[in-house]
Every structure is written in structure tokens, then in C-alpha cells.
Design goal:
Blueprint (H helix, E strand, L loop, with lengths): L1 H14 L6 H27 L12 H78 L6 H8 L7 E4 H4 L7 H8 L6 E3 L2 H14 L6 E3 L9 H4 L7 E4 L13 H6 L3 E3 L2 H10 L6 E3 L4 E2 L5 E2 L9 H54 L2 H14 L12 H7 L1
Parallel strand pairs: 2-3, 5-6
Antiparallel strand pairs: 1-2, 4-5, 6-7, 7-8
Helix pairs in contact: 3-11
Length: 398
């Protein structure tokens, strides 16, 4: 050490001749002298305290071998812990995925239940409406007293087929025109023969129930007028009305008797043009219900109410069809609800099994190694969050 100090002094002395700025050189000299004195004090303290450098203790062969085994065991435990942490992280991710899927399935289930409830209410409302209309139809509400009386005799008079309004069908767009052109003719009673009509008329007289019109099928004139058939291609003509309605096969020819001499035309203007062209010799009805009679008479306007015999019949048919489709939709929705409930139950069971697996892993041997130091340090239990994961699990996985 003394030799080193002497060498530093020699080097310092050799540098003095080359310095031009004496103030700067003086500062350097003071700093170096201070450093030398500090080094001398350090050396002196070492000697006074009998300071000595000792060699590190040497281990015996047995101790070295035992230390190596401990190190290898530590490495194995560290690898096991790493694998356990990876498996635990994978388990938590799987649980999170199952939880999200279960939430989505529950939302789908509730949505499907709501749709089912709405569909069931719609079917119920349609059924109530149909029941009301059927009750009206069974009592022949809207028909004359004589018609209701005769229809109550139908079980005893097998030759009575029914009322015109019940026997014919027409598209919705043509209902108004049909009711206009037939009027009270919709309440005519169709029967198989004249004998049935005669007996019912006698009963009406005897019971003083009013008057009714009868249409014995064999007596009706069913031939068509060729003049009307030749006008189908005229401007504005929809068709001969007899071709636009349907009747039961047993009443074939009834449509010709009622409507083969009536043209259905789109508008009033087109109807008037036809009447002028054919010198007021036609019977024409428009889609909006204006009626032009042969000879020149015209009738039209608006009804006070929208209820009609043909409309009631059509509505009943639509309700029956709607109820049938609604029931099919309900059955489909019920199956869907059942499938989604099964899916939710399956996911809940799977999630419960994963939750149990998580608890078992937390209780495993790797947990003691992973948590021991932190538990000893803080001295707390293992609180569980609302999300189902523990504080220590969160800390360990970070």
C-alpha cells in the first residue's frame, strides 16, 4: 500500500511541469492529497482491528452430495408447481368460458319463454274469439227469426241442407260485392227437394214464426247466360260472379242460379261505361259495393256497421287456421324451451364439477408449497370473492 502511495506521489510530481493553469493544478493537488489521506486512514484501521481475509469454509463430500440432492429436489418441486399452476390457470379459463356460455343460454331460455307466453296468449285470444263467433253462428244470430226456426228443425228435416251464407265461399276482396248483390238472398234456405220446403213452410205458418225463402236444388234453373260469359274480357271486368265463388259439391249449380247473370267490375266508372255500351241490359256490381241493375237503377253508399254474415264466416275460418298454426308454433317453442333448459342444466352440472375440481386443486399438495410463505407472512384465511375465486388464487396466478 505504501509503495502505491509513493508511486502516486511520483506520478503527481512528474505532471507538474506540464501544467499551465496553476489554480487548476492546485485544486487537483488538494483532491489527490485528500484521497491519499483517506486511503491511509482506511489501512490504519484495518491493522488496528487485526483485519484478515479468511478463506470460505470447505464442505465435506457428504455435505456436498446432500446439498446437490436438495437442489435437484427443489428443481423437481419447482417444475411440479409450474405444471400445477398452468393446469389451474387452464381450469379457471374453462370455468370462465362455461360461465359465459351458461349466461348466454339462460338469456336465450328467458327470451324463448317470453315468445312462448306471447304465442300462447295469442292462441287463447283467438280461441275465445272463435268460441264467440261459433256461439253466434249456432244461434244463427244476424239471421231472420224464420231462418233460425227452420235451422233448429234441421235434425228432424234431413232434406234441409243449410243457409246460402253458410254454403258459399268467396275471397275477402269480393265479400262486400257479394253481400250487396245477394242481400237478403244470403238467408235463403237450400234444400234437397220441394217436399222439404213445403213441410217447413207449413211449420212456419203453424208456429207463426215468419216467412222464409227456399231453394229446392232440383227446381233451380242452373243454365248460364252466354251474353255474360262473352263479356269477361271487357275493360275492368273481374269476371262473372258465379265463377268467383265456391259451393259444396252436393250443391253444384247453386252458384249459376245465384250469380251467373252478374258481372263483377273493378270500379264505378268502368261499370257505367259497360252499362252505356250495352244499353243498360246488364246487372253489374263493383268491388266497393255499387250495384247497377238492368234497366238503369243504381244503388250504393256505406253500411252502418262492418259486421256481415260472410265476414263472420271468413273470420271463423281464418281463426281456425290461425289457431292451428299458433298451436304448431307453441309446440315448436316448447321443444326449444325444453332443449335450452337441458343445455342450461348440463352447463350447470359441468360448471359445478369444475368448481369441485378447483377446490380439490386448492387443497392439493402444490397449494401448500405455493401458499405457505404468503400465509405465514400475512396470517390470514382464504376469503372467497363473489366470483368464486380466492384472494390467494388471484395472487398466486399473477
Amino acid at each position: 500500500m505504501a509503495a502505491t502511495l509513493f508511486a502516486m506521489q511520483e506520478q503527481f510530481s512528474s505532471l507538474l511541469p506540464f501544467s499551465k493553469d496553476k489554480s487548476e493544478v492546485q485544486l487537483d493537488i488538494d483532491f489527490i492529497r485528500s484521497t491519499i489521506k483517506e486511503a491511509e486512514r482506511t489501512i490504519q484501521n484495518c491493522f488496528e482491528n487485526n483485519f484478515a481475509f479468511e478463506e470460505a469454509p470447505k464442505l465435506s463430500n457428504g455435505e456436498e452430495e446432500n446439498l446437490g440432492e436438495q437442489f435437484l429436489a427443489f428443481q423437481e418441486k419447482e417444475e411440479e408447481l409450474k405444471k400445477a399452476k398452468e393446469a389451474f390457470q387452464s381450469l379457471l379459463q374453462t370455468m370462465q368460458g362455461l360461465s359465459l356460455e351458461l349466461q348466454e343460454k339462460r338469456q336465450e331460455l328467458e327470451s324463448e319463454k317470453s315468445r312462448l307466453a306471447l304465442q300462447e296468449r295469442a292462441v287463447e285470444n283467438q280461441s275465445l274469439r272463435l268460441d264467440n263467433l261459433e256461439n253466434l253462428a249456432e244461434r244463427y244470430e244476424g239471421f231472420g227469426n224464420a231462418v233460425r226456426f227452420c235451422m233448429r228443425e234441421k235434425d228432424r228435416e234431413k232434406g234441409l241442407i243449410g243457409v246460402v251464407a253458410e254454403l258459399i265461399s268467396v275471397p275477402k276482396d269480393y265479400e262486400l260485392a257479394l253481400e250487396t248483390v245477394l242481400g237478403s238472398g244470403l238467408q235463403q234456405l237450400v234444400c234437397e227437394d220441394e217436399g222439404t220446403a213445403k213441410r217447413l213452410i207449413e211449420k212456419l205458418k203453424r208456429e207463426r214464426q215468419g216467412r222464409a225463402s227456399f231453394l229446392p236444388l232440383p227446381s233451380l234453373r242452373k243454365n248460364r247466360d252466354e251474353k255474360y260469359d262473352s263479356l269477361k274480357k271487357e275493360a275492368g271486368v273481374v269476371g262473372v260472379f258465379a265463377d268467383l265463388i265456391k259451393v259444396p259439391e252436393s250443391c253444384k249449380g247453386l252458384e249459376n242460379y245465384l250469380l251467373s247473370r252478374v258481372l263483377l267490375v273493378r270500379s264505378m266508372e268502368e261499370a257505367l261505361s259497360l252499362e252505356k255500351k250495352y244499353h243498360h241490359s246488364l246487372r253489374i256490381v263493383t268491388l266497393e259495393g255499387e250495384l247497377l241493375q238492368a234497366g238503369g237503377a243504381i244503388s250504393g253508399g256505406a253500411y252502418k256497421n262492418n259486421s256481415s254474415l260472410m265476414g263472420r264466416k271468413r273470420e271463423m275460418e281464418e281463426l281456425k287456421e290461425g289457431i292451428e298454426k299458433g298451436k304448431e308454433a307453441c309446440n315448436t317453442l316448447r321443444k326449444s324451451v325444453e332443449e335450452k333448459m337441458k343445455a342450461c342444466n348440463r352447463l350447470e352440472e359441468e360448471l359445478s364439477a369444475k368448481e369441485e375440481e378447483r377446490h380439490q386443486q386448492e387443497k392439493g399438495d402444490f397449494r401448500a408449497g405455493a401458499y405457505a410463505s404468503s400465509e405465514d407472512a400475512v396470517g390470514v384465511s382464504n376469503p372467497v370473492h363473489q366470483n368464486g375465486f380466492s384472494d390467494r388464487t388471484d395472487a398466486w396466478l399473477q
